[in-house]
Specification:
An 8-stranded mixed sheet has the order 2-3-4-1-5-8-7-6, sandwiched between helices. Strands 10-9-11-12 form a 4-stranded mixed sheet, with no helix packed on it. It is globular, with a radius of gyration of 17 Å. The longest helix is centred in the N-terminal third of the chain and has 12 residues. It contains 5 helices and 12 strands. By secondary structure, the chain is α/β, with parallel strands linked by helices. Strand 7 and strand 8 form a beta hairpin. It comes from Aquimarina hainanensis.
Length: 237
């Protein structure tokens, strides 16, 4: 039903992150105009991408309003992101139909996905609609909803305007994310595998909470300096 859309990595300074990852041989795309951007995207020719984001201090107080308007899942998720150190902090899931070989993302019925999750016992927030403006000035709309259990990945609609570049080439040779290793809270193991289905892409191990440990990249030609990774952990595959 669902598969990995993208992996989130929180950073303290998004501009320093882009500078460091450029040194490492990655080509990143700003989420919005550079001077105002709080996120940057690391795309690959196929499969999931990585979103690096900075959470400004003034935004940390949004947990209570989000909980009041959208439910506990939304407020608790924001609290989790606010308190997370630099590094992997979450994973987004998408309908399998929304990750084609092209950059086109067909509309997704999040209500149907949410209903299916409710049947499995995974309760979640109301659907949150959001938008931003791309570096080219295009308005981008998307929606998410967040399970009440913050250890469970959140669900993402995909973008209503293509965001993936037509051509993607990283000077360091990286071509795609080959696998993601993550711990899965034993409380949600059955629901997790029911929704994601069995796939070798996501390597799971039992843990006390659901979290991403490392990401396997295909095609890297040299080792990555951990001092420049801002808490992210990569393995060559």
């Amino acid at each position: 039903m669902l598969q990995c859309s993208h992996i989130l990595c929180k950073v303290d300074n998004i501009h320093k992150l882009v500078e460091d990852y450029t040194k490492l041989g990655f080509s990143l795309i700003w989420g919005s105009r550079k001077e105002k951007a709080h996120n940057a995207l690391l795309w690959f020719e196929e499969g999931p991408y990585i979103e690096f984001f900075q959470l400004p201090k003034k935004f940390e107080v949004l947990s209570y309003p989000l909980k009041m308007f959208y439910g506990r899942g939304a407020g608790d998720r924001w609290t989790k992101w606010s308190k997370s150190p630099e590094g992997w902090c979450d994973m987004a899931l998408e309908s399998q139909e929304t990750i084609p070989a092209t950059s086109f993302m067909p509309p997704v019925d999040l209500k149907a996905i949410k209903k299916e999750m409710d049947k499995t016992g995974v309760r979640s927030s109301r659907i949150i609609k959001n938008k931003r403006v791309s570096p080219e000035g295009v308005k981008i709309k998307y929606s998410i909803f967040c399970p009440n259990a913050t250890g469970f990945p959140f669900v993402f609609s995909g973008y209503d305007s293509p965001q993936k570049p037509e051509k993607i080439k990283h000077p360091n040779g990286a071509t795609k994310i080959n696998w993601v290793k993550m711990g899965v809270d034993s409380t949600y193991t059955e629901e997790f595998h029911h929704l994601i289905r069995t796939t070798p892409f996501i390597k799971t191990i039992p843990d006390t909470e659901t979290k991403v440990f490392e990401v396997g990249l295909t095609g890297l030609r040299n080792e990555l300096d951990p001092q420049l990774l801002h808490g992210a952990v990569f393995k060559t595959s």
